[in-house]
Backbone:
């Protein structure tokens, strides 16, 4: 997010073009050491989320072509989504080109939305590019799947798969579930998302989600409360918003409930907290107050 605020449009393309197979750690090793391109892509589908849980891969056969589709696993803000998509698709192109040993001009790249810097895509993608497709994908001929990798190494591939399997299992752990819920809260805006929606997006039942959060030492209510607290600080800094408007944005039906929450979080009413936020940090420090974001 910080990079997006200062980097020019298209920086995802610049970064993606610099990420060769070796920069993707165990996933990269597993892909290039696979016996064939088919095996490499199947590994990417199974373990790609280990590299970045924001997205997952899916293979679909359409006629004599294979669609390698990129699907969002965690809701992202618009300004976060596109650079990641660009980076992922260029990394995929690098994987395929490393195995085939040449530029893949026969590929088709599909991007769900047309960005303002669409004219830059031709500099980075080897094949044709189309926008507004609804799905992000790289399309290749089916005949490529059985192409043997020049870097095939059965021992290295086996070790890579074992390592990726262990990493994937750790991602199913307790704290990881809580982190996913926090991401969904942040991307949902306002007062977060309902428990039912969070469970649906994580493809688990409400009971399972509650149990996993309990194993992580937290609850859905605590995570939602923490999300609202952070958002309250941000919204109170906008003096054009009334306390009632902020309460509504945080998901409170009654402004008085927001006031009670502020007292619980900060020991101050919304108005008093807003006044305190206007004070210079040194003055707050002399009074012995902890940072508001703490």
Residues:
């Amino acid at each position: 997010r910080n990079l997006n605020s200062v980097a020019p449009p298209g920086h995802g393309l610049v970064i993606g073009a610099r990420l060769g197979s070796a920069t993707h750690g165990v996933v990269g090793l597993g892909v290039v050491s696979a016996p064939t391109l088919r095996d490499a892509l199947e590994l990417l589908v199974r373990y790609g989320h280990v590299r970045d849980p924001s997205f997952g891969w899916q293979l679909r056969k359409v006629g004599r072509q294979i669609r390698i589709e990129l699907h969002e696993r965690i809701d992202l803000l618009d300004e976060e989504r596109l650079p990641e998509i660009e980076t992922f698709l260029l990394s995929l192109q690098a994987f395929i080109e490393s195995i085939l040993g040449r530029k893949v001009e026969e590929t088709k790249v599909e991007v769900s939305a047309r960005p303002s810097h669409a004219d830059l895509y031709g500099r980075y993608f080897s094949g044709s590019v189309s926008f507004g497709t609804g799905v992000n994908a790289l399309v290749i001929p089916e005949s490529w799947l059985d192409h043997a990798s020049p870097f095939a190494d059965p021992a290295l591939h086996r070790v890579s798969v074992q390592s990726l399997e262990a990493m994937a299992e750790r991602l199913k752990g307790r704290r990881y579930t809580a982190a996913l819920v926090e991401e969904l809260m942040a991307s949902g805006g306002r007062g977060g998302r309902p428990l039912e929606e969070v469970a649906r997006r994580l493809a688990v039942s409400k009971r399972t989600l509650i149990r996993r959060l309990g194993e992580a030492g937290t609850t859905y209510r605590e995570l939602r409360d923490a999300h609202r607290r952070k958002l309250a600080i941000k919204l109170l800094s906008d003096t054009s918003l009334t306390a009632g408007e902020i309460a509504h944005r945080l998901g409170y039906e009654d402004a008085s409930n927001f006031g009670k929450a502020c007292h619980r979080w900060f020991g101050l009413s919304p108005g008093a907290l807003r006044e305190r936020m206007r004070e210079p940090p040194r003055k707050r420090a002399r009074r012995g107050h902890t940072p508001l974001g703490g």
